[in-house]
Amino acid sequence: MAGTYTYPRYAYLTPPELHDGAPRRHPVVVVGAGPVGLAAAIDLAQAGVAVVLLDDDDTVSFGSRGVCYAKRTLEILDRLAVGADCVAKGVSWNVGRTFFREHEVYHFNLLPQPDHQRPGMINLQQYYLEEYLIKRARQLPTLDLRFRNTVVALQPGDDGVRLQVSTPDGLYTLAADWLIAADGARSTIRQLMNLEMEGKVFLDRFLIADVVMKADFPRERWFWFDPPFHRGQSVLLHRQADNVYRIDFQLGWQADPEEEKKPEKVSARIRAMLGDEREFALEWVSVYTFQCRRMKQFRHGRVLFVGDAAHQVSPFGARGANSGIQDTDNLCWKLRLVLDGQAPDSLLDTYSDERVLAADENILNSTRSTDFITPKSPVSLTFRNATLALAREHAFARALVNSGRLSVPAFLTESRLNTADSADFAGDMVPGAAMDDAPLRVDGAGGWLLDHTGGHFQALLYVLDASALDAAQTAECKQLGEATPPLEVVVVSPKNGIAAGGLRVFADCAGRYAERYDARDGTVYLIRPDQHVAGRWRSFDANRLRTALARASGHF
Amino acid sequence: MPLKLEANFFEPGQRYWRAYTPGDDFYEALIETHRGLSDEQSALLNAKLILLLANHIGDISVLREAMAIARQDV
């Protein structure tokens, strides 16, 4: 098979425990260096937390696997300092087209609004994402990344976890105050703890092929229902980096996976799809089935489950890796506050609550897509085809065509961390929403709202004239910086200006902040470290902000 | 009133964050209604459903328009 990618081999080093035999206790151990475990470890280590990251392998993901990385994920990856690498290498896209038999019936645009830094989605082979994350991880002095370290036993306790780890040099014991299980769908940690997943298996098989070819397919997602080249089934095409195309063929449950993986069989399918004699080469072929299921809760004492270890979805919607990275974004700031003694341990229960809700939304949407794509009964197939037939002409039917509802962040509107609105606001930036981006000028340079927020609590105070803030108000703002946890007040203003007392000023140069956040003179937003809105008001009141800050950091 | 052909699904009191959600809510409920039925039973259910909805709409000119569109390309 063709090879556009050279798999790196990362060196195994004898762990310090095996050098001197002394057992060590670490504040955080992460198991699994896939995209989710790496994101968790980087997020914590960037903030100075000492993290040990264990992986049973010494290279990156084999095959393209997770391919689509959504806008929200890119915004999180930006904060982990790998977003730019991913976007530069990946194929950015916003438009998806859906075909029924010979004709296009529907297309969508993931990002119809202007003035966002990141596209709706990029396609990038998972091995690149992992390579960039590993490169970033190795820059962080408090991140100890250990390859070929396999967890074989686990002892959970009230104040920590003891792990037995197998290495080429033998076994050793590791103690952790907190354990993050990011070890994938077949999580060893989950199995060692005898924890169950609940949900359903779908009786269908899909063939995925990474195909290297020179082709002029646009930078779009193309999905076919019942195409002439693959009758009665569906096909999905994504363009990735390096002229590699990812093609998913639905096979049906009766298909024999070993037979279907044979290169001559796969090549014939691709030849039929291309409809011509152009050159192509197979790079990777796999047959998959899938499940939609989750753990009842993602926190079990000192063990926190993230990503596929905690929940799995069908691939239609790109809600797997994307939701896993959003898990870590939700978890890491909470864990950091608990480690620093700035929040009660119960704050971590809200990680489970909020991400269980997000997992349910992801499972709901990807199950609905799967049911539309692979109807389970004749009547369901009839409705599906009737919808597709009407969709060519009628808008209402186009809205029902479901070839995947692509990953978007959940609105955590029911979260206990939110302070409810006490005034009317237009738009979607409700308490619990992930922040919308907006172009800004900061210190005279162009930038983006999401590049200047996150990592700590912030209050965004919108004023028409930053220089008009009086000394008493700025002093109150500065005092919030001494709160527990600290709260940074930032002034957002339509005009460039300097606020008294050294407060930072974001100039809302295009007016998008005011528009998207329905901001008027005096409007304040309280923003969590993961860029979710925690509360908002029409006027600045330091005491009210302190109360909301306490709630948002787990003091209910 | 002419037949509505723009997306029109909603549920009173519900706020939707994604445009596709109300349509998907309906579609799931529709397929779920048929769960476990034989083809014959499903056909009967569909007929009853059409009669119920037709009576609810009431305006026969609207129903004629819908019937004409449904008949196309069948």
What do these coordinates show?
The complex is a heterodimer of chains A (556) and B (74). Chain A has 15 helices and 26 strands. Chain A is globular. Among the domains of chain A are: 23-90 and 121-195 and 294-365, FAD/NAD(P)-binding domain, CATH 3.50.50.60; 439-552, Glutaredoxin (3-Layer(aba) Sandwich). Chain A has 556 residues and is an alpha+beta fold. Chain B has 74 residues and is mostly helical. Chain B has a domain at 37-74. Chain B is 59% helix and 0% strand. Chain B contains 3 helices and no strands. The radius of gyration of chain B is 15 Å and the shape is globular. The chains are: A alpha+beta (556), B mainly alpha (74). The A-B interface holds A 365, 368, 371-372, 377-380, 383, 387, 389-390, 394-396, 398-400, 402, 405, 408, 411, 428 and B 4-9, 17-20, 23-24, 26-28, 30-31, 34, 37, 39, 42-43, 46, 69, 73.
How many distinct helices of chain A? 15
User: What is the assigned CATH homologous superfamily of the domain at 23-90 and 121-195 and 294-365 in chain A?
Assistant: FAD/NAD(P)-binding domain
The number of strands of chain B is 0
As a whole number of angstroms, the C-alpha radius of gyration of chain A is 25 Å
Instruction: Classify the beta-strand content of chain A into a percent band.
Output: 25-35%
Largest sheet of chain A: 8 strands, mixed
Q: Measured on Cα atoms, how large is the radius of gyration of chain B?
A: 15 Å
The pLDDT mean of chain A sits at 95
Tell me the helix content of chain B: 55-70%
